[in-house]
Amino acid sequence: MSAAHEARQRILLSPPDVGPREEELVVEAVRSGWIAPLGPMVDAFEQAMAERTGRRHAVALSSGTAALHLALLEAGAGPRTVVIVPTMTFAATANAVVYTGAEPFFVDCDKETGNLHPELLERALRELRAADETVAAVIPVDLLGRCADYTALLPICERFGVTVVSDAAESFGSSHAGRPAGSFGSTAALSFNGNKVMTTSGGGMLLTDDTATADRVRYLSTQARQPAVHYEHTEVGYNYRLSNLLAAVGIAQLERLDEMIGRRRALRRQYAELLGSVSGARAFQHPGDESDNCWLTAVVIDPAEAGWSADDLRSTLDHADIESRPLWKPMHRQPVFAHARTLLTGAADGLFATGLTLPSGSSLSAAQVDRVISAISAFLDRR
Ligand SMILES: Cc1ncc(COP(=O)(O)O)c(C=O)c1O
C-alpha cells in the first residue's frame, strides 16, 4: 500500500494482520485438494492449539459463539436452568446461553479489570441455591484480553459444584498465575474473528481436558451424524466445524502470535505513557498487564477531573478518521436482555460511561500509530 493511500485510510480499532505466510499456507491448502470442511490443516491447527494452551483436546469450530454454545450444552444448560454471565461482555456470551434455552443471569464486574467480581458471583450462587434453582454454568469472560481472576473464581464454583465455561474469546496468548488463557474451566472458548489477536477470518475453538466432551463436541458440530453408511441422526446437531482453508490461516497466525502480541503491547505502552500524566485519565487494566495479550487498549476518563469525556475524545478521533469505541455496553442495558435477572453494583455502567477503546491492531504501521498519537496529543493540548 502506498504511503499516500495509507495516510488517507480510516484507522480501525483492530483490523486483521495477515501477510505472505498466511497466503502461502492457504495456497498450500487449496492445492492439497482439502477444500471441504476438515482436513490435515484442521488436525495440525488443533494439535498446535492444544499444545499452546496445555489442553488435552482442541476442537476447531466456525466461531467462538459456536464454541460457547456447545460448551454450554455439554454443561447441561437448557430450559429451567440458569447460567451466570458477567454483564460486562460482548453479546455473544449471553446469546449462546439463550440458544440453549437457559436463562442468563447478569453479575457485575470489578471496576479495575472489568472482569466478573468474585464476591458478587458467590452472592449470586448463594441466592440461587437458596431459591433451589439449577445453575448449569458460570462463564467468566477474559475482558479485552485480561484473564478473569480464576484464582478466586474457580474455588467458589467448585464449592457450589457449578461448571465453569471460560470465555477466552479475547484472551488467547494471555496467562493468569502462570497458566495460559484457555486452560481454565471444564471447557474454554476461543474466537478467531477478524478483530482478535489472531484470526482465521472467522472461527473459534473449544478447549477441554475431557475426552468424552471433546468427542461429543466433534459429533454435535458435524450435524450429530451417527456412524452409518447412510445419514442417520438420533439428535439435533449443528454445522459448526472449521474449514481446512481457514485452519491454514490459523496455523500461520499462530506462528506469528507472539510477535503480534508484542506489537499490541508496545502500543499499550505508548498510550499509557501519553495518558500517564493527564489528570482524570488512565489506561484501563494498566499497569499489571504483563501477562495480558493487550488485545484492546482502553482509556478510562473521569470527566469531572479531566474536564472532558470519553465521548469528546471519540468524536475528535472520528473527525480524524480514526475509529474508537466505548467499552462493551453492559448486557443488562441491552434492550434484548432488559428483563433478565441481575446482581449489580454500577461498576459496568461506570466503565461503559467512561471507557473508550483505542486503535490496538498489530498491523498498524508506524505512520498510522503516529497519526493516532498525534491526534490524541493535539486533543489533549487543546484541553
Ligand atoms: C467476549 C466474547 N465472547 C464471544 C465472542 C464470540 O466470538 P465469535 O465472533 O468468534 O463468534 C466474542 C467476539 O466476537 C467476544 O468478544
From TrEMBL:
<keyword id="KW-0808">Transferase</keyword>
<dbReference type="GO" id="GO:0008483">
    <property type="term" value="F:transaminase activity"/>
</dbReference>
<keyword id="KW-0663">Pyridoxal phosphate</keyword>
<keyword id="KW-0032">Aminotransferase</keyword>
<comment type="similarity">
    <text>Belongs to the DegT/DnrJ/EryC1 family.</text>
</comment>
<feature type="modified residue" description="N6-(pyridoxal phosphate)lysine">
    <location>
        <position position="196"/>
    </location>
</feature>
<dbReference type="InterPro" id="IPR015421">
    <property type="entry name" value="PyrdxlP-dep_Trfase_major"/>
</dbReference>
<dbReference type="Pfam" id="PF01041">
    <property type="entry name" value="DegT_DnrJ_EryC1"/>
</dbReference>
<protein>
    <submittedName>
        <fullName>Putative pyridoxal phosphate-dependent aminotransferase epsN</fullName>
        <ecNumber>2.6.1.-</ecNumber>
    </submittedName>
</protein>
<dbReference type="InterPro" id="IPR015424">
    <property type="entry name" value="PyrdxlP-dep_Trfase"/>
</dbReference>
<dbReference type="GO" id="GO:0000271">
    <property type="term" value="P:polysaccharide biosynthetic process"/>
</dbReference>
<dbReference type="InterPro" id="IPR015422">
    <property type="entry name" value="PyrdxlP-dep_Trfase_small"/>
</dbReference>
<feature type="active site" description="Proton acceptor">
    <location>
        <position position="196"/>
    </location>
</feature>
<dbReference type="InterPro" id="IPR000653">
    <property type="entry name" value="DegT/StrS_aminotransferase"/>
</dbReference>
<dbReference type="GO" id="GO:0030170">
    <property type="term" value="F:pyridoxal phosphate binding"/>
</dbReference>
